[in-house]
Amino acid sequence: MQVAHPPANTLFETLLGEHIAVDAPFLLTPDGAVLGYGALRDQVLAVAADLIKRGVAPGDRVLVQVGKQPSALTLYLGTIAAGAVFVPLNTAYTGAEIAYFLKDAAPRLLVLDAGTTAAADVARAEGVDTVFLDAIAPEKNAAAGFAPVPRGPDDLAAILYTSGTTGRSKGAMLTHDNLLSNARALADLWQWGSDDVLLHALPIFHTHGLFVATNTTLISGAAMYFLPGFDLDQIHEALPEVTTMMGVPTFYTRMLVDPRFNTSTMGHLRLIISGSAPLLTETHRAFEAQTGHAILERYGMTETNMITSNPYVGDRRPGSVGHPLPGVSLRISDPDQQGIGGIEVKGPNVTPGYWQNPEKTAESFTADGFFITGDLGQIGPDGYLSIVGRAKDLVISGGYNIYPKEVEVEIDALPGVLESAVFGVPDADLGEAVAAAVVLTPGTEVGADDIMRALKDRLARYKQPRQILFLPALPRNAMGKVQKNDLRVQATSRST
Ligand code: MLC
Ligand code: AMP
User: Fold this and answer.
1) How many angstroms separate the alpha carbon of residue 156 from the centre of ligand 2?
2) Quick one: pLDDT at residue 2?
3) CATH no. for residue 434?
4) What confidence tens digit (pLDDT) does each residue in 123-178 have?
5) Is there a smaller number of Cβ atoms within 10 Å at the N or the C end of the chain?
6) 3 state SS of 409
7) Residue 64: is its pLDDT beyond 60?
């Protein structure tokens, strides 16, 4: 006979249910403040009750563009406890970009930092209710008798927007179980324990800082040392307090040129993890020589959460992203003679699809249900996966993704521009930097400054080109396809 369980909120119960140690620390900040698990749960429930009072119903989207601060995390968890769907946005997005997300996500509520004007004006024009973060449950006392709204494993917990090849961002839907299954797998694989303190310097509007870091910490009853951003002085000061660290490769290349990061300041850490962009073999080796730590590289994607990881115990191989996580199936499609082909994945970690976009969803899965990552990989004889390139036209700069099409559309719309091509060039700090080749309409005079000025309010700063080449024509192959490799070579030779 089946025992009927009372309905629960899957993610909330697992991360913040009755089992938590209420006195254990969750969040440490540089000002010495400590937020414990019991207080966290009270605050989360207070936020959930307030959201519901504001009309947020189960399944509603709560669109959020706020800076990194502890209350942004309680808003995330409070949205989940309210049965709603958390939709975080990069703080660098301009009003023009926000207008698109407001239309696409059709949120019940937009949450902003106090004083934000551009996004608030856009929301008013769209008729979307807006509230400032500090006005949500300001007292942060748990509402008496409030219970989290029941949500099953397949219900949506979040939508994370990722840019697309067509220049339009698409919202990757993530269920309670997508997030939970991944947090469980990572906490287990990386041997996370309640004594761990994670150095958290990543933004919290992406899967890396929000889910990989935060959910793995919560599910282990561990703590995070929460920095507002990546700052070498703050990182250095935090080191004695922490046991682990996560970051994008730029974190580690920046730490490498600072001798304060060495075996004596870092020897006590038990694990350092990198992801979101390729970690160069030379960075891996140099970091190990300087600090004694073999960085553990893992691979993931917004749509799939984490897919592979190097082992915690065993060979953390430079240039490889390790093995599929337990429960994740991975295959290489159409391998060439060297075994290189498209990486495809299936498992409880993978998105059910894109928000309100069945065509894009259908295109992104194979007939037998594998998600097509757009990354090219090769699996070695011992099962280690290496990412050798991308089938998708994408630039990854400092861990942020930029789809060239989105920038090209904006440049092409400028008066005097005939056409443009946007591509990545190698960059010692960011891995890749955005560059643009621009062809002007004959007889017009447009300079790089004019283009940069025009893009300022249209595109987030990190998407704007760092280098602009003016060319008489774009190099094309016989099929008419722009040869971005040629452009990369031209741009690199001009800047050296
Ligand atoms: C900031 N700028 C960037 C940039 N970050 N430009 C290009 N690419 C970036 N990543 C801009 C700033 O607006 C500023 O513009 C100028 O560059 C200098 O800024 P900075 O002070 O050097 O930047 P900083 O604040 O130090 O930020 C760099 C960074 C940050 C690398 C620390 O970008 C960062 O935290 N990246 C992490 C991104 C991340 O979490 N990705 C995970 C995605 S999830 P100006 O000209 O106005 O001065 C994912 C899946 C997975 O990919 O597997 O994890
Ligand atoms: P996003 O769309 O922002 O989630 O970024 C996902 C993409 O980041 C992947 O499809 C890869 O191209 C890239 N990525 C993530 N982790 C790694 C890694 N360890 N090495 C190389 N590329 C990575």
Assistant:
1) 23
2) 55
3) 3.30.300.30
4) 998 899 999 999 999 887 767 789 999 999 999 999 999 987 777 899 999 999 99
5) N
6) helix
7) yes
CA of 277 to the centre of ligand 2 (A): 5
Give CA separation, 482 vs 152, 421, 478, in Å.
47, 8, 10
CB 250 near ligand 1, within 6 Å: yes
| Residue nearest atom 39 of ligand 1, based on CA coordinates | 399
Using the mean position of ligand 1's atoms as its centre, give its distance from the Cα of residue 5 in Å.
Answer: 45
Q: What are phi and psi of 327, to 5 degrees?
A: 90, -10
Number of domains in the chain: 2
Residue 268 lies in a domain: no
- Whether the Cβ atoms of residue 387 and residue 321 lie closer than 8 Å to each other: yes
Domain that holds residue 452: 394-495
395 CA distance to ligand 1 middle (Å) = 13
Confidence of residue 116 (pLDDT cuts 50, 70, 90): confident
Domain of 68: which CATH number?
3.40.50.980
Q: What's the pLDDT tens digit per position in 259-316? A: 999 999 999 999 999 999 999 999 999 999 999 999 999 999 999 999 999 999 999 9
Q: Are 51 and 62 in contact (CB under 8 A)?
A: yes
Q: Which amino acid is at 141?
A: N
Q: Whose CA is nearest to atom 23 of ligand 2?
A: 277
Final residue of a domain: which of 96, 117, 152?
152
Q: Which atom of ligand 1 is nearest to the CA of 299?
A: 53
Separation of alpha carbons 261 and 421, rounded Å: 39
Nearest CA to ligand 1 atom 47: 461
Identify whether 206 is part of a domain: no
Q: Is residue 174 part of a domain?
A: no
Nearest protein Cα to ligand 1, atom 51: 276
Any ligand 1 atom below 6 A from CB of 305:
no
Q: Note whether residue 238 is domain-resident.
A: no
Q: Which of 117, 152, 187 is the last residue of a domain?
A: 152
